[in-house]
Structures are given as C-alpha cells and as structure tokens.
Amino acid sequence: MENIGLPAQFENWSEARRNGFLAIKKLKDEGRKVVGVYCTFSPVEIILAAGAISVGLCGISEEPIPEAEKILPRNLCPMVKSSYGHAITDTCPYFYFSDIVVAETTCDGKKKMYEQMAKVKPTHIMHLPNIATGEMSLKLWAEEIKRLKERLEEFYNITITEDDIRAAIKDKNEERALLMEYFRLGELNPPPMTGSEIHSVLYQTQFKFDRPKMKADLRKLIDDIKEEYNSKEQKKTDRPRILITGSPIAGAISKIAPAIEEAGGDIVVYENCGGPRSNRYLVDESNPNVYEAIAEAYLKIGCSCMMNNDRRIKLLDELIDDFKVDGVIDISLTACHTFTVESARIKDFVTKEKGLPFLSLETDYSQSDSEQLKTRFEAFIEMI
After folding, report:
1. Over the Cα atoms of the chain, what is R_g?
2. Number of domains in the chain
3. PANTHER family from the xrefs (predicted)?
4. Cα 264 to Cα 212: distance, rounded to the nearest angstrom
5. What is the pLDDT averaged over residues 287-307?
6. For residue 234, what are the β-bridge partners?
7. What is the DSSP secondary-structure string of 241-284?
8. Is the residue at 213 inside a domain?
9. Dihedral over Cα of 183, 270, 316, 307: its sign
10. Which residue intervals of the chain are DSSP H helices?
C-alpha cells in the first residue's frame, strides 16, 4: 500500500499539530477512509455506515486567514475564512488526509466558500432546507441524506446497507447520550468543571477516531467526575451561573471562557454548535425509514440558518431552567449575519420571558479585543 506523504512545511509546525498529522496519517496508511465535515448538520451516521472516519475540519485559527483573504472578502466570518485558509495552505491535517469533504448549504458565506474549496478537494454539497419544519423539509433532507449515501457508495466503490446505517445510528446515539450526560454535570452547584474544560472535552471528542475507546473514555470521565464530586463535601456557590449561546466559538474560546470566569462567573452550559444544540435529540432507532429518522433528528438542531428558529428558543428555555442560569451571553462571530440578526429575538426571550440579564457581543479570532471583552464581562457579572 502506498503511503501518503506529509506537507513540505510539516517540521515547522507545533508539536500538537504534528501529532495530529501523524495520527491521521497512520490511519490513512492503514487504508482507512476519511471523510471531512465542517458542520453539525452533516449526517455522521452515513459516513460511519460507509466504514469511514468522520473528522471535523479545522476552522478555528486566525493563522491561515490572510491567505484566505487573497480569494475571499475580508468582511467575511472568520470561521469561513479560517476553514478555507487551512484548506489551501495544507495546515489542517484532517483536511489534508480527507478523501472527500461533506459540506452543507447553511450560511451564504460557507455556500460560496465551498465553491472555491471544491477546486482543492472533492466536495459533496448537501442542500439543507431553510425551514426546519413541515413535510416538504423533512422529505428534502431525507432525500439529501440518501443522496450522500449514494455519493459515498460511488466514490469508494462500496455498498452501504440499511443494517450498516442502523448500526451507525446506534453508535452515534450512544455518543450523543454520553455527551449530554457529561454536559448535565454542569447542573450541579458548584459546577465540577470550568467552561474551558467543558468545551475542551467536547472539541477533543471529534478527534478520537477509535469510537469504542472514545465512548469508553467518556464513560470513565463522567464516572470519575461524579466519584470525585461525591467524595467531598460540596458548598454551594453564589457565583453567577452563565449560559453561552450564539455562533460556533471554538476559535475564540481561549479569550472568552477564562475572562468570564476570572470576572466571577461560572459557565455551566453552552448552547452552541456541538453542545446540547446538536446532541439533545437522538435519532429514532425504531423508525422503519432510516433516512427520515436521521433527517428528523438533524432538523431539530436549532441553528440560526433556519427561518422561524423556534427550536433554539425551546432548547434555551430548557437549559436555562435545568442549569439554573443567572445570565445569558450571546456571542456572534463578526459577519455571522444569521446569529447577529437572531440576537434580538434571543434578547427578548431571555429578558422578557425568562427575566434574566442578557449580554450580546461580536468578536473574531484575533486577540485585539481581549481587554474590551474582559471589561464587558466584568460589568455584566457585577450587574448580576
């Protein structure tokens, strides 16, 4: 079997990035299929059913953005620019070794960026409906999921059976249930994890490619946290309990979470991509139509790319009550128009219906606004 080489600039990168390259390269050298994804709307079940590794692709670093801006406009979401920048500079190990990218028509920036990305790597575009409810939306998304199955069959010259899909549904449901159990540890007072720790576990899970071991590690982590927590007398804290909502913020979390916690708040839950938003609902394993079952679960994701996004309000309502939230911070990435526009509705719900303090702000991946963010977080926590 022919081994795949490493990028020319491999030795110039950090140890963490080199290790990521070596881990995924080993799997590729073993003949494993690798499918890259960018969004929680990508139906991982179909990728797993194909016997492939599903890997989240890089889009959280400011580093490759200048290269991306040679093609993409500067006034575009940093996540979109970072994703494309990594792709064209070979600085994302997971993109570099992906056979094909599964993309989706969520925001306008990503849709147009994917047109450019398709020049670099085989890219399959899934046409996501703009309205999450109704028979036609369900039918469209189910057909798109079936079309992905057919594309992977053709691309890899394989056959994906219904039994393969059902096994993948069960596998992914087990992961979702474990992640939700982990997130719900934040309901405790005092919370057993910091906001940075919550996000770190969530982010790292998608880069553990041995799925049985990944789930076993999650199970052990949850049990260890519970055992440690229950072994000591816990004194309730009056630190404000904060819910973070809005855009995907993995690229900005390092300047957000520590600043909030240093200001005196405890981040107890995230209503962002990858958190409860995409893990709250399981795929119905009893549904005889596997494509509709998957489609129905994914259309419950309360993303701002959807019109009349009642799903997000419903989830926020649940999380605010369950986690006994004292304040909500809505963070939108610069030029993330759907989340920025929807912020007004979120503010009305949080302040008028839930009676809680609310802070809305925009940021990007740079560190230039770190001090400004600290000041705003301090004022918000003090107000609570």
Report:
1. 21
2. 2
3. 2-HYDROXYGLUTARYL-COA DEHYDRATASE, D-COMPONENT-RELATED, DEHYDRATASE SUBUNIT YJIM-RELATED
4. 38
5. 98
6. none
7. EEEEEES--TTTHHHHHHHHHHTT-EEEEEESTTTHHHHSS---
8. yes
9. negative
10. 15-29, 44-49, 65-68, 78-89, 93-96, 108-117, 135-156, 162-183, 195-205, 211-230, 253-262, 276-279, 290-298, 310-322, 337-348, 370-383
d(CA 375, CA 384): 15
> Token pair 């979702």 is at which residue?
176
Q: Which residue among 160, 188, 213 closes a domain?
A: 160
The answer to whether the CB of 146 falls within 8 A of the CB of 293 is no
Mean pLDDT (the chain) is: 93
Q: What percent of the chain has pLDDT over 90?
A: 83
- Range of the structural domain that residue 58 is part of: 10-160
Q: Tokens for 51, please give them.
A: 């016997």
Determine the 3-state secondary structure of 384 from DSSP: coil
Cα distance between residue 159 and residue 343, in whole Å: 44
Report the candidate in 318, 329, 204, 180 with the shortest Cα–Cα distance to residue 261: 329
| pLDDT tens, residue by residue, 206-224 | 778 889 999 999 999 999 9
The candidate with the shortest Cα–Cα distance to 244, out of 234, 258, 228, 231, is: 258
The residue among 144, 72, 147 whose CA lies nearest residue 109 is 72
pLDDT at residue 60 in the model: 87
pLDDT at res. 206: 78
Q: What are phi and psi of 39, to 5 degrees?
A: -135, 150
pTM reported for the whole predicted model: 0.94
